Amino acid sequence: MFNFTDKKNQKDERYYQAYLSHHVISRRNLFRGILGGSEKHLQQDAKRAVPRPPFAAKEHLFLNACNGCGDCVSACPNSILQISEGKVMLDLGYSTCSFCGRCADACIQQALHRAFRADTELRPTFLSSCIQHSHQSCECCQQACPKQAISPDLQVDPLRCNGCGECQLSCFVSAIRLTLDS
């Protein structure tokens, strides 16, 4: 007999409740799944309109799970999270993300969770004011990047870059803007 007061079983129960709240399973789809048929998922992933913290669920799940409680904002040691329109968003204008995971640990709604990617989905864009564009030597952003995702010709490796913001903060001419990866 199962004891649902057990922590492990509660987590499993919450997981399935969250899954079923985001996925519609009809009898027809259930039998299609059992009999090997497949149907494309009708709900497409929503693109992020604003930057989210690392460890964020996919946007459509995040929007349903985040209740704007602010626990993650209080837990962030870098003060880069804020609540906007009832949801948490990321602001790397004056600091960087260390990916410490405290925001995910504080999120009881599991909109942020360490099982999700440690990536802000922000990528550097180099403006025309970058001194390398005028053929002057500068390696500040390349040296500041902890993932070595920026090449000498200012190409960003999207698989290495995690959107921490170190490159933007290191640029002394403010020629780097972080934009959502599309």
UniProtKB/TrEMBL annotation:
Gene3D superfamilies: 3.30.70.20
Assigned keywords, A-Z: 4Fe-4S, Iron, Iron-sulfur, Metal-binding, Repeat
Identification of the protein by name: Ferredoxin-type protein NapF
Molecular function per GO: 4 iron, 4 sulfur cluster binding; metal ion binding
Domain 4Fe-4S ferredoxin-type: 57-86, 88-117, 152-181
Entry-linked NCBIfam families: napF
Organism this protein belongs to: Alitibacter langaaensis DSM 22999
